[in-house]
Amino acid sequence: MTVVHVNKAQEKLDVILDEVQNSYEPLIIAGEDHSAVLISKEHWRSIEETLYLTSIPGMKKSIIDGMHEKIEDCSSTVEW
Fold this sequence. Notes:
Helix content is about 50%, strand content about 15%. By secondary structure, the protein is an alpha+beta fold. A three-stranded mixed beta sheet has the order 1-2-3. The longest helix is centred in the middle third of the chain and has 15 residues, at about 40-55.
């Protein structure tokens, strides 16, 4: 992960926001006593969704099982 000192982050915040958004890579903003991680809003939403889905009992196993399922064995009929 890239690390940027808080003073530089303050000077170049608009550029840093663009970089984080376009690269989808987290960035560490380091101060004298504390540090924080900056990620894009879309990346954060993705993390929230993953956390939510894996918190549902049985969902993690269902997703993993589905990843091993052959596409031919999946139903192609959609009922509305």
